[in-house]
Amino acid sequence: MTMIKGIAASNGIAIAKAYKLVMPDLTVDKTTVEDVEKEIEVYEDAMSQTAKDLETIKEAASKNLSAEEAAVFDAHALVLSDPELKSQVEDKIKNEKLNAAAALEEVSTMFVSMFEAMGDEYFRERAADIKDVSRRLLANLLGKPLPNPALIDEEVIVIADDLTPSDTAQLNKNLVRGFATNIGGRTSHSAIMARSLEIPAVVACKTITEEVKSGDMIALDGIAGVVMVNPDEATIQEYVTKRDEYIAYREELKKLVNEKTVTTDGHHVELVANIGGANDLAGVKDNGGEGVGLFRTEFLYMESADLPSEDKQYEVYKEVLESMQGKPVVVRTLDIGGDKEIEAIDLPKEMNPFLGVRAVRLCFQREDIFRTQLRALLRASVHGDLRVMFPMIATLGEFRKAKGILLEEKEKLLAEGVEVSDALQVGIMIEIPAAAVLADQFAKEVDFFSIGTNDLIQYTFAADRMSSGVSYLYQPYNPSILRLIKHVIDSAHKEGKWTGMCGEMAGESLAAPLLLGLGLDEFSMSATSVLSQRKLIRSLSKAEMEELANKAINCSTMEEVVALVEAVIK
Ligand code: PEP
Ligand code: MG
Questions:
Q1: Is 554 helix (H, G, I), strand (E, B) or coil?
Q2: Residue 450 C-alpha to ligand 1 middle, in angstroms?
Q3: Any atom of ligand 1 within 6 Å of the Cβ of 526
């Protein structure tokens, strides 16, 4: 039995076998072959194996994915059987006496660059298909087949170096009981998604992919951030008990689903949820969310290799608004970049992607994409209480420009005779220190703020949210952050505007007394945190928390603040 400690990323206890989702090293050595015919046979065998793999994956995927998503594998099968690809690889083997793996690598790289250079959407997608298929084919040639989560057919705990948001989106929630990764932090997007999928997760386990084999028994504690590998019988029993206690605790909390979040002295705050798509709405309702405080629309763009059309987006926004039945829904415009990539947009490779062309910065470069999204949102605005929010705003100029584009699209729609709501609120995320410091000026022009602490903390402390090496600098309770939050809330209130928080801090129990005391109006969090925060806030007095917050902003370290709060909520 081995114990691995990591960072607790998503609450819950899971016990199941390990499934390693680790990409093999596919480095190719270029060699000269003597027996050319034999090398061609090797290539043909790898092709048949790859065709079989694609067929199996497609069958498995059709059970878990939509028909459209499963159709990707048909496109891959077509690429594999393309005679041009095959004949060019065989020519290289024959004429240059290259080994099959090197020949394939050269030919596929040539095709990929050729298609990518065409710039057209259709050819870019073909380039992506060729890349995918060649990788699978190469893996078979090298005898190191790729793992595929679509093939999981029993309950497992996924072990990986990292899971990208799109990997996480593909996990089958019914079979994937939990996951543990080498890297990541509490605010990396795979951790955030794990919480909304209610999958227990531990991240930053450093070397877990080396310490665990597929099939090992795993007991994972997403609350304490611990993974036990091949636990003995007594430890398994201990985890079964912990799991049952956690389930019972969640059941008890369910009694608060329809209750309001009111402090002991009668102050009401709104507890709303963060979602990544319409699939998360059931979780919002089951957990008593009073609305949506952050719809991360970028996940819509990750579902396929094409950009979602205006009509497709309109349908999703309409569904979310209708389903929330007049409750507030804050939709954030596209926030791609940083740790979020999408197939349909080729982002430039940057030294510091979190400081580069991300979110509105990208939308200003690709106004076509931005305008399509804004039109879909404006059209959907008549179906509920929609609030549009721009991410990564650093300057008032950026806000004015984004709002200007929104208003232009509104005018165009009205001229086309399309109805648009008059009550649409337009706000910004406060996640860049420059905007937090200048909140008093922003407050005159925006309808609301939502504080994105995940980024605000990373930018204030200059500490990459993906890096476990600097995770000690994720310090939501540092007085510097509390002072920024106070300034933002006070500035909004002075202008009669409201302030929410949609960063992970809003869902943390230690933060609730402080944020309440600082006057936060709306707390937006993973739906699974709503009920525990409600229970806690209902036990607190706003007046007392104001005193606590006052003391906290005058502390000098995070440790002092934590000690103050712990004395209150223990
Ligand atoms: C944030 O930065 O706090 C936030 C909510 O946005 P995201 O995590 O998507 O960057
Ligand atoms: Mg952010």
A1: coil
A2: 10
A3: no
Ligand 1 in reach of 335 Cβ (< 6 A): yes
Give the pLDDT confidence of 123-145 residue by residue, as tens digits. 777 777 888 889 889 999 999 88
| Domains of the chain (ranges, CATH numbers) | 2-22+148-253 (3.50.30.10), 36-142 (1.10.274.10), 255-569 (3.20.20.60)
Cβ of residue 92 lying under 6 Å from some atom of ligand 1: no
Structure tokens at 4: 């691995």
Cβ–Cβ under 8 Å, residues 12 and 178:
yes
**Total H helices, total E strands in the chain:** 23, 16
How far does the centroid of ligand 1 lie from the alpha carbon of residue 465, in Å?
A: 10
pTM of the model: 0.78
Closest CA to 131 of 147, 149, 109: 109
CA distance 30 to 93: 11
Mutate to test the pocket of ligand 1, among 190, 192, 454, 459 (most ligand atoms within 8 A of CB): 454
Distance 471 CA to ligand 1 centre (A): 16
> Quick one: pLDDT band at residue 188, thresholds 50, 70, 90?
confident
Structure tokens at 26: 């596919």
**Torsion angle defined by CA atoms of residues 275, 276, 278 and 283, in that order, rounded to the nearest 10 degrees:** -40
Separation between Cα atoms, residue 208 and residue 179, nearest integer Å: 11
Number of C-beta neighbours around residue 401 at 10 A: 16
Total number of residues shown for the chain: 570
